[in-house]
Amino acid sequence: MAASSTVCAAWIWRRSRTGRCCRGFFTVTEEEFAALLGRAAPDAPLDGWLLDTFTAISPLVARELTVRACGSTDAPVSQGSALWEVFSRWQRDVNENTFTPTLIKRNGSLADFTYGPVTQYGTYAETEIYDSFSHLLDDFYEKREQAERVKQKGRDLLKTATTARDRVRRKLAAQEKELTACLDRDHLRICGELITANLYRMERGQSRLTAQNYYDENCADVDIPLDVRLSPQENAARYFKQYAKAKTAEKYLTAQLQRGGEELQYLESVGAGRNGAGLQRYPHGAGRRRLPAGAGQKAARLPACLQAAGVPLLRRTAYPRGTQ
Question: Which of 174, 210, 292, 295 has its CA 20 to 30 A from that of 225?
């Protein structure tokens, strides 16, 4: 213990940020302090001079001493005439082991901890005094670890929601493309009827039929591709079957696009709740152009991938038109 006290009381030297040697602050006198300060550049930052001149001073403490002496953390050396008074009180507190365990919070989040009162942050931070450093350190690292776990969970959920959102976007784009093709199905029916009307001049194995399109105002000729493996009647039936299939697919795809649009809207709301900015809206508006009125007011379904990841179901609120 005696050896340790001797080391603490002696001058302690270390290398500064500029490469010069630093001395310990434990026994420095007012005359030595003034001499060291007088050799510094007048326009140098005062807190930087403290860091470069004395060992065992943290940037937080250097700024705090500067604020108490000059009222600002940006004060230069030329304004350091009152620094010794503040420095000497802090030196005495350290030498007498007069410490105040202090926790610093910014916006409700843990920021730092120190061994004395902190005023440099003003209203931008709040401090909490503890009865012991053991209690302070346990509380600080426990809460920081808990906050980090919550942030990591949020990042994982956001990643899951983003992946699901992108998959739904691709699915909606493909379904809208299919729906567009289904809406152009009348030509399939016309081809079937033109084949039926021209059966008398067709024969099996024919690859193409050129006939007048009596559905056209000018009765222009139209080329109809045929399956050479089928008879003329079977080719006509094939076109009618494709027409009926496209008609049924339109109803199915419309319903799928509606459900997909609701799912995408939910995934975007999850992203908005997680990162505060939201995920980019789906640019194509798939599943919305041809949806029945009021469909957007239905409750969103929670995707299975997000149920497995533990994402909570968010309830949407209906807003008057133009207020969202």
Answer: 174
* CB-based contact 173:284 (threshold 8 Å): yes
92-150 residue pLDDT tens = 999 998 999 999 998 888 889 998 889 898 888 999 999 999 999 999 999 889 988 98
Give the total residue count for the chain: 324
In degrees, to the nearest 5, what angle opens at C-alpha 184 toward C-alphas 182 and 185?
70
Q: Which of 58, 308, 282 is nearest to 165 (CA)?
A: 282
d(CA 221, CA 189) in angstroms, rounded, equals 16
User: How many other CB atoms sit within 10 Å of the CB of residue 41?
Assistant: 10
pTM here? Answer: 0.48
Distance CA 269, CA 282 (A): 12
Query: Using CA atoms, how far apart are residues 261 and 269, in angstroms rounded to an integer?
Result: 12
Residue 165 exposure: Cα atoms within 13 Å on the Cβ side: 21
Which residues fall within 8 angstroms of residue 321, CB to CB, at 6 or more apart? none
Distance CA 196, CA 199 (A): 5
Summarize pLDDT for 187-222 with one digit per residue, the tens.
888 888 888 988 888 888 888 888 888 888 788 888
Are 42 and 77 contacting, i.e. CB atoms less than 8 angstroms apart? yes
Q: Yes or no: say if 195 and 239 are a contact pair by the CB < 8 Å rule.
A: yes
C-alpha dihedral, 105 to 106 to 110 to 115, nearest 10°? -40
Q: Which residues contact 170 (CB under 8 A, 6 or more apart)?
A: none
The C-alpha atoms of residue 33 and residue 84 are separated, in whole angstroms, by 7
For residue 320 the two structure tokens come to 């008057």
